[in-house]
Amino acid sequence: QLQASGGGLVQAGGSLRLSCAATGRTFSNVGMGWFRQAPGKERETVAAINWSGTYRYYSDSVKGRFTVSRDNAKNTVHLQMNSLKPEDTAVYYCAAAPGRWVVGRTKPQDYDYWGQGTLVTVSS
What we know:
- The chain is mainly β.
- Helix content is 0%, strand content 46%.
- The chain is built from no helices and eleven strands.
- Strands 2, 4, 5, 6, 9, 10 and 11 form a seven-stranded mixed β-sheet that branches. Strands 1-3-8-7 form a four-stranded antiparallel β-sheet, with no helix packed on it.
- It is globular, with a radius of gyration of 13 Å.
- The N and C termini lie far apart (34 Å).
């Protein structure tokens, strides 16, 4: 099971750190992704990281502001979000890829194991 946490209300320009904790099975040998879905919009990929942490993908909208990382010993993945903007407001989800690698896996449908989301609200 995957559970995202760390969401909340923050002012524009602020920071939040999301965590994705895995229980019941190990996710240390698969790629992981972070996604978000704003009201009335489709779910989009925000960031992804391969199983060892040596490759990271970021969408253009968050590149330079967000950082994805993982701690395989703790079976967790993090998303550090800096310089937040009102348009970052969304429910954020983490999900596991079906394999180790995330190269080319830039769409939500490329991930097959999803956790509950956490709401991030950025006020202007």
